[in-house]
Amino acid sequence: MQTANKFSVSRYSPERGAMAKLTARDSVVRRLDWPILLCALALSLLGSLLVWSATRNRTTLNNGDPYYFLFRHAMNTGIGLVLMIGTVWLGHRTLRGAVPILYGLSLVLILAVLTPLGATINGAHAWIVIGGGFSLQPSEFVKITIIVGMAMLLATRVDAGDLAHPDHRTVVKALCLAAAPMGIVMLMPDLGSVMVMVVIVLGVLLASGASNRWVFGLLGSGAAGAILIWQLGILDEYQINRFAAFANPELDPAGVGYNTNQARIAIGSGGLRGSGLFHGSQTTGQFVPEQQTDFVFTVAGEELGFVGAGLILVLLGVILWRACIIARETTELYGTIVCAGIIAWFAFQAFENIGMTLGIMPVAGLPLPFVSYGGSSMFAVWVAVGLLQSIRVQRPMSA
Asked: Which of 304, 292, 302 is nearest to 368 (CA)?
């Protein structure tokens, strides 16, 4: 027996260490939330087809290459997957410690938009043009910074066992952290992104267990702030016109109301099963502006009909449902708050994007998560998926 042990692998041998690493990797893969991952992939792939259909005939956009946007959307999805894997590898707890760096970088990027480096696209001075046809919208990454930053502040003492709920001083610090980048984004002005950030802040506060007085106070302050912004004329004329067209769709059907009117026509013509991919008259005729970005849902409604449009809603619903489960199962408040912020972000942005195509929400220039064309948006939502997966993977096995 001792002779046999002489040739056995020692406890600290390289072979045993390699097996342990393999087992750890297998455990990570096994514990991933596959419904979220598969639904996000399905939405991105479906988005590739919809973006392709919306742009293949638009020679002024694709420079004569019908596959231009299809290739770039697929590339953005691939980069997003790499970012998701990197986020899972780093872990949400590591990013928690890096919040000061991430926050400082976010402020630098959004401040750079207000310098000559910034560029105006579709009326919003919210972009940094890198070159070679690439651009960056820093406000998309600010959403992530606000989520992890507020979660870190609100959860630190609670997770340490010092407090049962965040105290008022901590809530004030968290709100100040969110207010600084939101104020800068408002100056661009990028009202759509600010709307999403406000909803994120409310979702984070609700999940943190902070006093409901803060939530009601913010709602009241938000209403008063909206009135003040309107009275002071901070909004650009095109944003005011969008709200006016929402309140009265017949106000200027050939001007500011054109987008929403054509969007409703496209969706309404799809019926139950749609006209078929690449066969939509509104899409082929290029009647709906910005159809590959803000109005991509109209392509689904027209060419895939109620069935295809409903599939998008189901896939988004599954992602939100599974995110709620992850938030419920995690044993740390920090993870719960991060999940809640992502849920609020995805839910409101999807509702706003789809709602503006149906005429039940004002046009705010927000992309449909995973589906719309746009690198910054795609990268940000996949990083968010990485955060959800990290929280799922790193929870205790008994949870």
From this structure: 292
Phi-psi region of 365 (alpha: psi -120 to 50; beta: other; left: phi over 0): left
Instruction: Decide: 352 and 371 in contact? Cβ < 8 Å.
Output: no
Query: Which residues lie across from 131 on neighbouring strands?
Result: 134
- The DSSP call for residue 165 is S
3-state secondary structure of 114: coil
d(CA 362, CA 15): 61
pLDDT value of position 16 = 47
Instruction: Render pLDDT for 196-224 as a digit per residue (tens, 0 to 9).
Output: 999 999 999 999 988 888 888 888 877 77
Distance in angstroms (rounded) separating the CA atoms of residues 258 and 298: 14
> What is the Cα–Cα distance from 96 to 146, expressed in whole angstroms?
12
User: What is the torsional sign of CA 88, 92, 97, 99?
Assistant: positive
Is the pTM here over 0.90, yes or no?
no
d(C-alpha 164, C-alpha 122), whole Å: 46
